[in-house]
Design brief:
This protein is α/β, with parallel strands linked by helices. The chain is 46% helix and 16% strand. The chain binds pyridoxal-5'-phosphate. Pyridoxal-5'-phosphate binds next to helix 12.
Length: 497
Amino acid sequence: MEFCSTRNNELRVTAAQAILQGLAPDGGLFVPTELPSFSEEQIMTMAAMSYPRVAETVMAAFLPGFSKEELRGFCKEAYTGRFDDPQVAPLRNVRPGLWSLELWHGPTCAFKDMALQMLPRLLPAAAKKCGEDKQVVILTATSGDTGKAALEGFAGVEGTKICVFYPKGGVSEMQRLQMVTQQGDNVQVFAVEGNFDDTQSGVKAIFTNEAVRTALAEKGMLLSSANSINWGRLAPQIAYYFWAYAQLLKSESLEMGDKVNFVVPTGNFGNILAGWLAKKSGLPVDKLICASNQNNVLTQFLQTGTYDKNRPFHLTASPSMDILISSNLERLLWFVTENGEQVKHWMQKLNSKGVYRAGAELADRLRDEGFMGFWCDDKRAFDTIQDLWFGRGYLCDPHTGVAMNAYNQYTALTGDKTPTIAVSTASPFKFAKSMLPAMGLDFDGDDFQRLEALEIVSCRTAPPSIKTLRDAPVRFDKAISKSKMKESVLRWLEAQA
Ligand SMILES: *Cc1c(COP(=O)(O)O)cnc(C)c1O
């Protein structure tokens, strides 16, 4: 298995190089040129495995050049003792035919931990395989959750430095506090005056800037990314799709070969793409339901084949999905066309005009692949959260609420009874501010008073890592304009050297 750029089929690298570089030099994303294939027997054996073993088995197939022993060690470290549930990613039954895969039991209470507890182990190993002895500088744009998960994963990791940019005012107060209170000598955090897309574009621009690369190389540093543009982020995410299916086999809720649907709250398209990669590698998946909030650019794309980011940007109660440029869609476009020139053309159009038309035929192909898109606004997501809480005693966060609402729309439209797994991406306590109104409760108070109120009404305790934010000292309070991102990183690295 080799990797090529989504914008150039001829640009070939190994898995280690793909992880180390993060983004291809031509601005494309790295994709494997062929996919592994898991047999029914292999999937059945996963029903008896722990999460770290499933992760090791699945990741080994997507990371050629990394040995099983090596990955076993990484998985054991990443997924043992750091999650507050012994299952790591428990699968809960919500109502007949519907399960919730809770991916938020890690240290930062969002699903990003599933991959970002792993990436800091993969990256130094990848550097070593490439014979690289430079310091790896991680630049990350975040819509809220990636930033903290990446900081937590990389803080104190030998041979790495990490700098996170978040859109000022575009993340929840808890998310902001999680980031600006991060400990560690090798970390830096900036608020950027702009939205997530500005922040992500700024990071991409630094990446593809030759002068920056040269200047850093002279200091013995090289750039990489902890965003889901990095293959090292996607590979660990494929594992939990297999895991979820195996849990249903284990509980005899289905028989090997029976299909399941997944509904995924989507922003940058990394999570749902991992689900599709699992499907293409043999997991019996039927529909992949792409759930969006009011920033519903993907819903329109899946319905029409036109991607149009020229629309108002909405700040919603599900901030980690407030995204108009879904980076990982580029990978799906490459997989279904296998045409780097074509993808490059679309991405250039997106860059220059904010819109590209892949056509109704391509939209049909994506439907054949199982993709369907639905969206809802905050009000509808909140209604769904209330229904699930009062009707089923199941509490989900606003992002997962969008997914649950999309699933309701899907079943109302199709009547489909296929067992379905909703991918639950954040702890409700991370979004306590929205949770009380979502549950129909009126409450005045600051974020921490709301957190306590949520504990009382839900009869659950909030994760300690969130409760202690109230008294944690703020280390990073700098806001910069989007034109100053490059300069700010370089100045920080200068001071670090
Ligand atoms: C990142 C995130 C998402 C979106 O995931 P993508 O892989 O970007 O599509 C959804 N929900 C939460 C809570 C997140 O942190």
